[in-house]
Write a structure and sequence with these properties.
Order of helices and strands: HHHHHH
Oligomer: single chain
Number of domains: 2
Largest sheet: none
Structural class: mainly alpha
Length: 125
């Protein structure tokens, strides 16, 4: 009687193993390759700081990320405030885009400093 049980469980185990193997292979095939369009769609949905982190995470594997970030993201970073630009500069240092973002950061820093000095002058007088 025990011999019968072993024979019945063996095909069941093989079917179960086959099922897991097929599941794992189909999951690995469904991973989509990152394209410039997919990366851009993803960047648009993120905050500027999240976008900088995404850029840093992906740039070593996808060479188009430097150009995509330079052409599509850096030009709109002028809308960021000083604190966002400061954080982005720290994230993307040592990249080809760091210099351009740093220039935006310095402009924002100058503007916030002028605003603070102006506010102080108003309150002193």
């Amino acid at each position: 009687m025990k011999r019968n049980i072993k024979i019945r469980t063996c095909p069941f185990a093989l079917v179960l193993i086959l099922f897991f193997y097929i599941s794992m292979t189909s999951c690995s095939n469904s991973v989509q390759e990152l394209t410039a369009q997919i990366a851009m769609d993803s960047l648009v949905k993120k905050t500027p700081v999240e976008g900088a982190n995404f850029y840093m995470k992906m740039r070593s594997d996808y060479k188009f990320m430097d150009k995509l970030y330079a052409d599509s993201i850096v030009p709109i970073l002028h809308t960021c405030n000083y604190f966002e630009l400061k954080e982005i500069c720290l994230i993307i240092k040592d990249t080809p885009n760091a210099k351009n973002v740093y220039a935006l950061y310095l402009t924002a820093k100058e503007q916030i400093a002028k605003s603070i000095y102006s506010e102080i002058e108003k309150n002193v007088n």
